[in-house]
Structures are given as C-alpha cells and as structure tokens.
Design brief:
- The protein is an alpha+beta fold.
- The protein starts with a helix and ends with a strand.
- Strand 10 and strand 11 form a beta hairpin.
Length: 274
C-alpha cells in the first residue's frame, strides 16, 4: 500500500479519538505523523464550507478541484479569486451535474475567468469530492460544494495537511485530468454568457442561488415547477428513468429530474421495468 494511502487511513482512524474533541461551531483537529488532520460536520454547526474556503484561500501556487456538485456561491468565488491572484487552478466536475442550472452558471463564471474545466465522458459519475492545494493539503469527505451540504445535509469535510496524503490525491487527480478517453474539456462556449445581452457583465456569484439547492439534493432539477420523473444511472452505466408509482421509484435517488417521459427519453434514458 502506498505511503499516502496509509497516511489517509491513519487519519480516518484518528477522527473519533483525536486530540481535540468534536465541539460546536469550530472544526476539530488532531496531529497525524508530521502533519495535521481537521474535520467539520455540517450538523454540528462546524461549517465545513468555511474550512474548505480557508484551504482554497491558502493556496499559493496550485489548486486542483475535483467535485461532483459545485453551486455554493462563496466557494465558487474563492476558486475564482484563487485564479485571479495567480494560482494555477484546474477543475474536474460531473457531466450530469454540469447541466443543472446553477452549476452551469457557476462554471460560466469560472470558465470566463480562464480556469480550465473538464467533465467526465465515461459512463459513470465523476463523484470525487476533493481539493488539493500546493501539493501539500488535501480535502476529502462526503461534502459537496453546495448550500444544502453546508446547511441541511448530514455531511463532513476532512482536511489533510500532510504532504504524503496530498501527493496521493494529486496523483489521482492527474490520472483523471490526463485521461483523454474518460474526460473531456468543457467547451469554451459554456463558460461564456450565452444570453442576448453579451455586453453586460456576468452575474455576481452572490446571485447564483438555485432551486435545486432548496431540495437538498445533488441532482439537477428540470426546468418545470414540479418535476416528478427520476433519472438514475446504475452501476453498469445504464440510464434509467422512474415514474411515480413504479416499484423502484420511492427508493431511487435521482441523478437527474425530468418534467416528462419525453424529456427523459431525449436525454438518453429508458423507462424502468414496472
């Protein structure tokens, strides 16, 4: 087992018994080898988004972000600002999530700033949730970069301030970034204002609040008042949609919502067996 992976496992094992107990409002931390591990739980009011933003703001040379859902305005702003101060920023995100209204707007802001963005072209999800800063600090955990993850969900963020662990995370990022068969560069057009008012400035990050975040879900919500059809991608990469009343409808966690069966079919999904 690689040293970086060993360090990560050690960090996770230390979480329940670290030197600092879990306390409300502030992230907890503990020593690990020659480094340090911190963690924050959303439901303990420890604000994982603030811990993450601190990592992003501390980046001096490089910042690599691989995240499934990216919609939280303050986090989007922190990534953009890192690029503006000269940090080399790269972003990997999920193809399906990128089609959602709010994430699409976030990617416009980042892409317009000059940040290179890639999305997965393979059949699975780009479900990594990590940030690597300067090859020295890495983040992990269930935490998506969204309002719901920061306020209502049961989520956690872990920050590993350990060079060996960060190197292992960076290696995984590089492997995905250079995988031409599994990832593709997001077309520049999606990172630009596609409205008729081309001369107007881009909307502010603070304005990028979304309907889907209010649902507390990761899935993009279709552009109708009350979408009911759930789109799901199984472990084989099959795209299947479920309608209300179907045998698997209630237990299916949607990866995309649809307003009609025609919309689901147009997106490449087939109806689940009843």
């Amino acid at each position: 087992m690689k040293k970086g992976v060993c360090v990560l496992l050690a960090a996770m094992l230390l979480l329940p018994v670290g030197g600092c107990g879990v306390s409300s409002s502030t992230a907890s931390s503990s020593a690990i080898g020659e480094g340090n591990v911190q963690w924050a739980f959303t439901q303990d009011d420890q604000h994982p988004e603030k811990l993450l933003i601190g990592v992003i703001q501390g980046a001096k040379e490089t910042l690599d972000v691989a995240i499934y859902s990216l919609t939280y305005p303050d986090i989007v702003a922190a990534i953009r600002d890192a690029h503006r101060r000269g940090v080399a920023v790269r972003l990997l995100t999920d193809r399906i999530q990128s089609s959602g209204k709010t994430q699409k707007e976030a990617l416009k802001l980042l892409g317009s700033a000059g940040i290179p963005i890639k999305i997965n072209s393979h059949s699975g999800l780009m479900h990594l949730k990590m940030t690597v800063a300067d090859g020295q600090v890495a983040t992990t955990g269930s935490f998506n970069y969204s309002k719901a993850a920061s306020t209502t969900n049961d989520e956690m963020l872990v920050v590993l301030r350990d060079a060996a662990a960060a190197a292992s995370f960076e290696e995984a990022f590089e492997r995905a970034w250079n995988d031409q068969g599994g990832y593709e560069t997001l077309p520049a057009a999606i990172a630009q204002d596609d409205s008729p008012d081309q001369g107007k400035p881009a909307p502010s990050v603070q304005a990028q609040q979304s309907d889907e975040e209010e649902y507390g879900a990761e899935a993009p919500v279709a552009a109708c008042e009350s979408p009911q059809i759930k789109g799901n991608i199984n472990s084989k990469g099959d795209k299947i949609y479920h309608v209300p009343g179907g045998k698997s409808y209630d237990r299916t966690k949607p990866e995309q919502w649809f307003c009609s069966e025609a919309d689901a079919t147009a997106a490449g999904f087939r109806k689940a067996a009843s």
